[in-house]
Design a protein that fits this description.
Length: 293
């Protein structure tokens, strides 16, 4: 008997619970429903598979499941692109479990040319993130913007990389830094969940999720929801302890030469109060650097 994957079970069950009959185009009928979303037999019917086959899949067995069936399930459960990618990652692990274990080591630093690129963007705060949300590198303005992460008690030592998920869930100062802490928490969990699908045997990721689950009830609750997603662009409002409120757009960029690293760049509207405050932040960063060479 094929081993069951609890991630598959919980992910499909939580997606199914989110899709109402109305959303799926199924008449409600007159009888009371015992489940908040679709029934298993409804998912099976809409996906063109038998109830027994779908039940086997939802119990955590993706072995031998074709791409066509995965696509059908993604359509039926109205998955986002990131959710579909996560489902395919789970299927890849089921199909080739040994290959899934032989994963490249996660980045712990950035290549020199990446650091040079970051430093060249001197007027824009830029940080380089690992897929576990470690800040691997930054330019001077990025370091100043996320100063609270570098000085956070969640950082194990001055030699270790700050971790944004640890800051969000374990550092009380995060509530002052992030204007929308709920959104920041949701984004962290979605990103880590997606990465857990792509690299299920990443020991450091497993350790991070275990620590956060143990120390944060909120993280544990959010993790159990199995929400998946990647923040590629948007807006954030941050409150910096030196310059005050900053309303910033952000863009996330991946590098072909270093696919496990993403660059997050933060931009202000020209001639806005935030643009002026970024200039003040740059001056503060230069003064701080001069005082601590």
């Amino acid at each position: 008997m094929a081993p069951k994957d609890e991630r598959v079970r919980d992910f499909l069950a939580t997606r199914r619970a989110k899709i109402t009959p109305d959303m799926a185009g199924i008449p409600r009928g007159s009888g009371a429903r015992r489940v908040p979303g679709l029934r298993r037999e409804e998912v099976a019917m809409l996906s063109g598979v038998s109830v027994d086959y779908y039940t086997r899949i939802e119990k955590g067995d993706l072995t031998g499941v074709s791409d066509e069936v995965l696509d059908a399930l993604a359509r039926t459960l109205q998955m986002t692109g990131d959710e579909s990618a996560y489902l395919y990652d789970l299927a890849r692990t089921a199909r080739r479990p040994q290959r899934a274990r032989r994963q490249p080591k996660a980045a712990v630093s950035v290549p020199q040319q990446v650091q040079l690129l970051i430093d060249a963007m001197s007027a824009t705060p830029v940080i380089a993130l690992s897929r576990r949300l470690d800040i691997l590198a930054s330019n001077a303005l990025g370091r100043a913007l996320f100063d609270m992460a570098y000085t956070s008690p969640t950082r194990r030592s001055s030699a270790s990389a700050p971790n944004l998920a640890s800051v969000v869930f374990l550092d009380p100062a995060a509530a002052e830094f992030y204007d929308d802490l709920d959104d920041a928490a949701a984004a962290c969990v979605r990103i880590l969940r997606a990465q857990a699908g792509a690299t299920p045997h990443d020991k450091q990721l497993i350790q991070l999720v275990g620590e956060l689950s143990t120390r944060s009830t909120e993280f544990r609750t959010r993790w159990a929801a199995h929400d998946v997603g990647v923040h590629r662009a948007g807006r954030k409002t941050l409150h910096h302890h030196q310059v005050g409120e900053l309303v910033l757009g952000f863009e996330e960029m991946t590098l072909d030469s270093s696919p496990s690293i993403s660059l997050s760049a933060y931009v202000a509207e020209p001639a806005s109060p935030t643009a002026e405050r970024l200039q003040l932040l740059a001056a503060w960063a230069a003064t701080t650097a001069a005082a601590h060479p």
